[in-house]
Amino acid sequence: MKASIICIGNRFVAGDEAGLLVFDRLQNRPEIPEGITVIEGGLAGLNLLSLLETGGRVVFVDAVKGFKGSSGVVIVEHEEILGSTSQLHFDHGAGLPYLLAVLPRVCDGELPEEIMLVGLEGECTSEMIEHAADISLTVAAHGLKGLT
């Protein structure tokens, strides 16, 4: 199955650069497995929709709050992402839940078969970024079953 790892965040805001730090780490890997595309999503917001219309597996990587409790790497499945906000809003901070809620309504192509988020919570140490990069590649290649 083809897969995309979409790293999102803002390099200029402390605490929001986690996904992009993982992107940088993945760019330094000698080899990304065939069929996996690594994308710097940055602050693209709804412009990411076109990247989600090709089916396959999609793994987002981003900073999160309120999932892990203190710090670490967490995997959040599609339904949990959608339920992570009590109210969808339409402003600049709408985020990933809004993007995924809109996707089925506007998709012109093939919806992803699997969508998940590798979230980094708390202070991003070098070890945590490396761990998130490893998990992102494993989940992109094998889905959640690759972690067992």
TrEMBL record:
GO terms for biological process: protein processing. Keywords: Aspartyl protease, Hydrolase, Protease. It holds the Pfam family HycI. GO terms for molecular function: aspartic-type endopeptidase activity; enzyme activator activity. The keyword Lyase does not apply. Belongs to the peptidase A31 family. PANTHER family: HYDROGENASE 1 MATURATION PROTEASE (PTHR30302), HYDROGENASE 2 MATURATION PROTEASE (PTHR30302:SF1). This is Hydrogenase maturation protease.
